[in-house]
Specification:
seven-stranded mixed β-sheet; alpha/beta; globular
Length: 421
């Protein structure tokens, strides 16, 4: 299988000058872009075809510092902000959607416990507890290249934020006994730690979302297993099989946030859920880039046949460019204003940005195939993979495209607590 693997000349998606990025921010994003073109692109087709996890990409990220991109500098990481991470992830998404999406699960376990947690209201005791506990997680990543994942989904209403998680943690001496099932557990079988969300519940206590625990379950712990097959439409390299946990003892030291703090994060830092979108921003750019190269007769792996002289192709590219620019502008604004306790306008914009990126990435890929024609959707070229991968974005909870529309409509028309007679 052949794939486009010469992306050396790709310009950054967000040019540093135009988008007023700082030097350090631009350099980090540049590092991700070069890594994506050099390392991810040549391997993407094989992992997509075989539905295998690109573990070697993660091994290669370690010496580049990319596994630790959001780990605070004082803990040995690169200390990237939310926005810097998002822009870097978009660059990786251009070259391998499955790696970028899996990387997102890993990085968020450090971003949410790092810069995002620093922004949350915590009591002095909670802050001390958190700051004492998190360095151990960071050390594993910085020193050993450990990989974390984020299996939250259970197939019920919990991942959408509408119910308590069915996976439960029963408090016992020194930790918890965890039991439950997670579906779509990206990095299953590859991660060293599964950063799960579960409900802390003592005997006889009612399940409550307020008691959500964010806990790192060691992959090798007794009672952990990965089951089922994985043969999906797209994002095949994420290997998102089903994770089962049966009376798994997890030490208290594996808490990724103190008791009750995850619930606070989910309610006061909503942009944390926009972190699934950067991968798809990158796929949107990739669909456009491919189309321009292909119609110019310059796409690697294709004969040098130019198709750009036809007015229909020019109009198609123009329409794609309009859609891409709209997507970039809205998304850049949304990731730039992520913060604790955002205004209502900022939250509505975040929903709009998520919806736009997820839907437009696939719309751009569909248009790319239609405009480039039959030869462009052969599996020897990356476009059909981009098309399939980009189809998955709108399905990702908690902010699926449908849920974004649902919330946008309701929250635009109703103030909190307002009811109709
Ligand atoms: C490639 C890929 C990788 C993934 N990786 C992970 C991962 O690493 N970790 C993880 O936790 N999950 C992951 N997911 C799972 C994903 O976030 C969803 O949980 C999963 O796709 C839900 O599938 P479902 O059919 O059970 O959805 P359902 O819960 O049945 O929902 C179906 C649709 O109904 C709508 N809906 C659901 N609930 C509501 C509601 N309360 N209000 C309004 N509308 C609603 C939504 O639009 C949703 O798309 C991944 C998914 C994909 C496709």
């Amino acid at each position: 299988m052949n794939a486009i693997d010469t992306h050396k000349s790709d310009a950054p998606i967000f040019a540093a000058d135009a988008f007023r990025l700082g030097d350090e921010e631009a350099a980090l994003i540049d590092r991700a872009r070069r890594f994506g073109a050099r390392v991810l692109a040549p391997r993407a087709a094989k992992h997509d075809r075989d539905a295998t996890f690109p573990i070697e990409n993660f091994r290669d990220m370690h010496p580049e510092g990319l596994l630790a991109i959001c780990i605070p500098k004082e803990n040995g990481g690169l200390g990237a902000s939310y926005r810097t991470y998002a822009l870097a992830a978009a660059e990786l998404g251009r070259y391998c959607g499955a790696t970028a999406l899996s990387w997102n699960m890993h990085v968020c376990s450090t971003l949410w416990t790092g810069a995002l947690a620093d922004d949350l209201e915590m009591s002095a005791a909670e802050r001390t507890e958190h700051n004492t506990r998190r360095p151990a997680h960071y050390r594993r990543i910085v020193e050993q290249g450990a990989i974390y994942s984020q299996p939250f989904s259970e197939g019920g209403a919990a991942a959408a934020g509408a119910a308590a998680f069915g996976t439960e943690a029963k408090p016992v001496d020194g930790g918890f006994l965890v039991s439950g099932k997670k579906i779509f557990a990206s990095l299953s079988g590859a991660a060293d730690y599964y950063g799960i969300l579960c409900t802390e519940r003592a005997e006889g206590e009612a399940a409550s979302r307020r008691n959500t625990l964010y806990l790192a379950v060691p992959a090798k712990a007794d009672g952990v297993s990965v089951v089922g097959d994985w043969d999906p439409l797209g994002m095949r390299g994420t290997v998102s099989r089903t994770l089962l946990m049966k009376d798994v003892f997890v030490s208290e030291s594996e808490l990724l946030m103190p008791h009750g703090v995850y619930f606070r994060a989910a309610t006061s830092w909503p942009h944390m859920f926009l972190t699934l979108s950067p991968t798809y921003m990158g796929l949107a750019q990739a669909a456009y880039d491919f189309t321009v190269a292909y119609l110019r007769g310059e796409a690697p792996g294709t004969p040098p046949v130019k198709r750009r002289m036809f007015p229909t192709k020019q109009i198609a590219v123009a329409e794609m460019r309009v859609m891409l620019e709209q997507t970039k502008a809205l998304w850049f604004q949304a990731v730039s204003e992520a913060r604790a306790n955002p205004t209502k306008e900022q939250v509505l914009r975040a929903y709009a940005a998520q919806h736009t990126v997820m839907e437009n990435a696939n719309a751009l890929a569909a248009k790319a195939i239609r405009s480039c024609g039959g030869q462009s959707m052969l599996k020897s070229l990356p476009l059909e993979r981009i098309y399939r991968d980009s189809r998955c974005g709108s399905l990702m909870l908690p902010w699926t495209a449908e849920i974004c529309l649902d919330r946008l409509g309701r929250e635009a028309l109703y103030e909190p607590g307002e009811k109709d007679e």
